[in-house]
Amino acid sequence: MLIRIMASRHSAFYSPLLSCIQFLREEGHDVPYSVLGPQQRGYALLRDQAIDIMQSAVSSNWKLREQGIEPLPVHFAQINQRDGFFIVGRQAGPEFQWKTLEGKTLLADHGAQPLVMLKYAVKHNGVDWKQIKVKDAGTLGKMEAAFSAGTADYLHLQGPVTAGEVIASVGASMPPVAFSSLCCAHSYQKTEGYRTFLKTYARAREWVRTAPAEEIAAKEAAFFPGVTSEVLAATVKRYQGVGCWDGGIEIPRDLYEQALNVFQSVGGITWRHRYEEVVG
Fold it and tell me: Is the whole-model pTM more than 0.90?
């Protein structure tokens, strides 16, 4: 069976999906995997049946809804219930205090949801966003290069982290939230491919939640050429410890509402979008 999967971002943060892809392939299914390009739009690819399933976030529907764009995908399963970004410093030290960021330079990921969540976490931890020298260095590669060149004190990115030392988890510093999810076209939910994927995904997510990090890293090593097994396993273990993959595969209403709270707190949405309009 052909099940075409695309990710909006590529990271070990999405280990439940990556392991699911491996499980499906082991079962004999044809499962192409790709990452969204700069000029591509996930909702359009799903609408036009160019892909079947997309790794995204419930928040991705909100701005599009406010622009009157239809049809939009339905979000049917949760991947993470915590923010998956880390604050990276130049060396490990005493317990990190968010106040330390004030007056310092931070290379932050300026993607829509990551930046909104970071602003919320900063505020939630009693820090003045305006007192942080936030810079946009562009792509992940450029961010890491700029940090390695000494242009900032701290770095904000997903794992695996190959530059600097992880000193704080954004997700652990704020309440659980509907962070990333899986979505598809409404019509795809009626297919055998969808049912096959959903059954395997439920198994994969529970396995990733409970299995030894080293086994998970070995399962998805092919997705991260150039990343050592030790770094990948440490990343998975860190995400397990934060509780990113706790709970079932359903998108809980309370975590959806918390995502709305986060975006509303920084003016990221014009109105609160009903759960039933996005999740199904």
Answer: yes
